[in-house]
Amino acid sequence: MPENILSEHAQAEIDRWIAKYPPEQKRSALLAALREVQHENHGYLTVESMDAVAAYLDLPPIAVYEVASFYSMLETEPVGRHSVSVCTNISCLLRGAEEIVEHVEKKLGVKTGETTLDGRIFLKREEECLAACCGAPMMMVDHKYHEDLTPEKIDEILENLA
Amino acid sequence: MSDQQQLVTIEIDGIPLQAERGAPLIDVADAAGITIPRFCYHKKLSVAANCRMCLVEVERVPKPLPACSTPVNDGMRVHTRSPMVLAAQKAVMEFLLINHPLDCPICDQGGECELQDVSMAFGGDVSRFRERKRVVRNKNLGPLVATDMTRCIHCTRCVRFGEEIAGERELGLIGRGENAEIGTFIEKTLTSELSGNIIDLCPVGALTSKPFRYLARTWEIQQFPGVAPHDAVGSNIYIHVKGDRVMRVVPRENEAVNEVWISDRDRFSYQGLYSEDRLQAPMIKQEGRWQSVDWETALIAAAAGLQHVVQNDGPDAIGALASPSATLEEFYLLQKVARGLGCHNVDHRLLAQDFRDQAHAPLFPWLGQSLAELGKADVILLVGSNCRKEQPLINHRIRQAVRRGARIFVLNPIDYPFNYPLTKRLIANPKEMITHLAGIAKALNPKDPSAEAIGIPPNASPKEVEREIAEALRTGARCVILLGDIATAHPQAAHLRTLSAYIADHSESTLGTLTMGTNGAGAWIAGALPHRKAAGQNLETPGLDADTMIAQGRKGYVLLGVEPEIDCANSHLAAEAMINAEFVVSLTAYRTRPMEDYADILLPIALFAENTGTFVNAAGSWQSFASAVTPPGETRPAWKILRVLANLLDLNGFDYMDATQIRDELQVLVQNADSPEKKDRWRPEKLGEKVAEKTNDKQQLTRIGDMPIHAVDPLVRRAASLQKTPDAGEGVIRINSKLAGLLGIWEGESASAVQDGIEKTLPVVIDERVPDQCAWLPAGIPSSMGLGLRFGSIEISR
Known about the structure:
- The complex is a heterodimer.
- By secondary structure, chain A is of the alpha+beta class.
- Chain A folds into two domains: 3-70, Arc Repressor Mutant, subunit A (Orthogonal Bundle), CATH 1.10.10; 82-159, 3-Layer(aba) Sandwich (Glutaredoxin).
- Chain A is built from seven helices and five strands, in the order H-H-H-H-E-H-H-E-E-E-E-H.
- Chain A has a five-stranded mixed beta sheet with strand order 2-3-1-4-5, with helices on one face.
- In chain B, the strands form eight sheets. Chain B has a seven-stranded mixed beta sheet.
- The N and C termini of chain B lie far apart (71 Å).
- Classes of the chains: A alpha+beta, B alpha/beta.
- The interface between A and B is small, with 9 and 13 residues.
């Protein structure tokens, strides 16, 4: 059965979320399930893992694909170990976000949307406002915010990523 | 609350209307003939309200509202053509066309496109959009549905159809915003047996018919009403014709029969009309060589051949076998010809093996209710039916019942997948199916002294599931027991019927039969039976049933639309019986290899779109149809062939001018008939012993030889696109892992299957849906042709 590919921990985590909703609305646990499964699988979802989640939640697989492809936090292709997104919305833009993006791309040798050849860093996307305007320009690295960026600060952050 | 209080008065465009409170505004407008444009709304699907094309102005509401998701309320005043609405429609149309390509000249939908029509009627004539249009990659959805996804406007009708009607969500909306597209995400062939309906639902040219692609423009097409020729529903169809050739088939709305849907089988089987092996002219075999001849020569030879058999060996030496999908008129004339010769060996029940209760049958086996009533049942017990694939639109009615909360129980020899949840399933080998039914019967009435007489063992102790089913049937308000194709083909079919009738009696359930072929009901009415003449008149000395005609062999055979080696219960014996016969005349649309070997005369007959006649569906409706195209070459409708043959045989009463006269004659017979058999369904009967099948193998394995959806008749077997779908039937032996272990066979290995001394070597698939001691090897496909009984004993070895 496909659900076997879900780890025990993932299953426990999904069960915890299922318990929060009425029994006939197991699909409400889908987002949490996908987040957990992605976390355990190097930051992206395989078709097999999505099928396993579908089976676990009694959903048609396509319902899981729809959600996985809709949310930008969920990846359906292999990506680098670390995820970097630079905000280019208005506040950051006024504070030089375009130069920041340029610097990151040059530093990593990849364009936005690509992963470095060593599989270390995934330069995910130009983010639209992450609600940290007071610290513009900013970027998010693996769910962590880094504010008041300068090229030097960026170099340090990126070099410290394993 | 009375109905009066439910009604509200509203006004649309100044016209006062009465409507039920809360009804969708768009439905009320539609009923009043007021046009509101729409793309995503469809009366048979849930409301999505995502296309915004149906915006209307409602007084005292500051902005336009979508008519599909706005319920009507008392005093509502609606405008569908006000300046606000016209501006809204124009703006929505401009948005919808932003990414839509201007490829109407090469689009199959052109001319019947909702987007084109609505754009003409409600859109502007200039687009202000100067940017690049997006391009969406096409999807491969299999052999039936072609895609041009750039044309998609994301109405999601196809997605909702999958979830709500097909019961299998295969398409979805992938991605979001400007990147949203309809697709399957992973490349996947659609597996729904109703998938073709998304072609009709798609308001644009994104989903079109693959076999029809680029073959005709819609304005070149003429449309003729017809009746689909493959299942017990008799779906109403339109046959689309260009230059006297059937180009495609689409549904014709009939709420009582097929609503607005048809199965893929009914939609695409027309391809079989143009199969290469189509017989074009009458042929006679002379000294082992086939020659095309004119009709007169062929029919004189046929009459002479039959007379020769009658003179030498008596009329009983002839056997007449008809396809259960022949027309009412054909059945009637066939039996009239045979009986005119003094022969009662006429039958259409080619797949059946057990006829013990035939004298007690109703006028014709039927559903026992209308299709709409079936959709409102509370509890349904399906006995021996892969309903989803056997009768797609009857299964759709059951699914409607499930959506209303019905509980469904099945008793099947294979754990077939259904597109609705089953409350409980009993999966058992054919023999144990009887035991289970007896258990249910026993649980309903444990102390009935008469039960033993109909084959319920006195010491039977019902199992938990059997008790549960009995309880559900006893307590449910509208309960139905349905006997499917597998029940009808079961070696102990009469026993299954009797037990089911007993259960129906003791639980006040409706007993229904899913009739064979397209016209199984019509065959009974027309008297294509050995024991009854037309209109159900019982004969004192019945002729031979189909199984006996094959098992004992006849000197002469008349075949009507039958390929006995595929269509009969025992492929091997049927082929032998034909080869051993002295004289075989086959009324057939196709010239086949086996037929060339055993037949003496081939007479080309018209198929559904070329024919005129009547089908009686499982609900008992007589549906007549006229021909839409001329049959190919010298082909003639079978009723005309039989008429001339009768005249050549010097039989009286065959002076019909057209098919209608034949139907009218039969209708009068039915009206005047006053036979006790007019009772509406089977009753529990005491049955004689059935001679058990001789078996000398030690394994005691049972074959489960069901018929794949696209193998049921000669026409659909030749529909090339359907044969490429996953439903076409695989030439593999399926056994469960327990049996595989006992036999020492691994998945993927080849094994030999032996029946009647005939051996076939086929790959093995381990499949836990197969019960113990059974091998699932479908009938009707080339790989299993020549084997023995579909539900008989079989030997499997490495």
